[in-house]
């Protein structure tokens, strides 16, 4: 097993629970072909941690176990998996069969996410260091009842090998849309071609909040993807719904999700707009169209720190364009899933955009991930959102 060493400063951070080491932080040379585990030693040459090792990635070491040497075997994974499942037990009673079972580092599986859509389980790995352990993880999942299919998804930077994005690890080879429930609402998900593992499970609580405030409103859902927020808004009793997304497949999947829940869409005022959100928002504004609630939940605008300034600009611009469409006394919901953008910076960017539109946002709530996405350290706190009343001129 590879042995690695780091500075005393980073050592102190790791001891406090920070789980990542980047290549440039290594203080000793290591061989390239070196397996999928490494051991971190402190400056006195004592064991500090064992972790997932990936020499091809800048983020080369992710802590699995701190201070105490442990054998990384079936029992090790099974214990953590059971703990994670028990933390999420309440969700099933709330009518939710689609949820995140393992949230990477935060559940003791650094660089690995496991989402469950009823009887279909989807593993997503962010480092090829996990390939060696997928057999064990599969055994652990299969120790549960009613496991019909297990599918593997790979993060975009991972080199393909015997494992590829969308590979079925267990169960029937053909993957059809999978049905699941969220807060008693019905959804279908394409776990092979969909973004992330197919659905944005992290927004569940925020969607519920949208449902609670939607009665009688006209709602604009921008970046609607497969209609998560739309289904909640309709179920909350909104009177009109418009979706904007650039992806025609996503718009079609959204329509399917609406049909799964609401038989009578004929009399309902529903419209889908395909195209670039920034452009379409401008067009709606020039037609003087207004909504009681505008939802802005875009894709990540920043994937690394260097994209932060442009991302903040884009969040401001989006808030400016979105708030222009909010009727007097209406509401705005704006979210960001860019990890490199801090919550504070995001909220400032939203207020800046709102001010540029000559409006004022009085915040009602700030919120983050749903409870199946626990967060143990700042870098994992990627989701932030704000809901507020929109007043007239500032
Ligand atoms: N709000 C969604 C998740 C959004 S994912 C939910 O709750 O499930 C991001 C979506 O934005 C994707 O569907 C993608 O097709 C769409 N998208 C990305 N760039 C876009 C753009 N410039 N204009 C419109 N839609 C865009």
CATH topology call of the largest domain: Rossmann fold
**What's the number of extended β-strand segments?**
19
Strand line-up across the major sheet: 15-14-13-16-17-19-18
Q: What is the average of the pLDDT values?
A: 94
User: What is the H-and-E element order?
Assistant: EHEEEEHHEEEHEEEEHEHEHEHEHEHEE
Q: Radius of gyration, Cα only, in angstroms?
A: 22 Å
Strand content: 25-35%
Listed once per kind, the bound small molecules are: S-adenosyl-L-homocysteine
User: What is the terminal-to-terminal distance?
Assistant: 62 Å
Number of domains: 3
Question: Which class of the largest domain in CATH terms?
Answer: Alpha Beta
Task: Give the name of the CATH architecture of the largest domain.
Answer: 3-Layer(aba) Sandwich
Helix content: 25-40%
- Give the helix tally: 10
Descriptive labels:
single chain, 394 residues, alpha/beta, Archaeosine Trna-guanine Transglycosylase, Chain: A, domain 4, Transcription Regulator spoIIAA, Rossmann fold, 3 domains, 7-stranded mixed sheet, 5-stranded mixed sheet, 10 helices, 27% helix, binds S-adenosyl-L-homocysteine
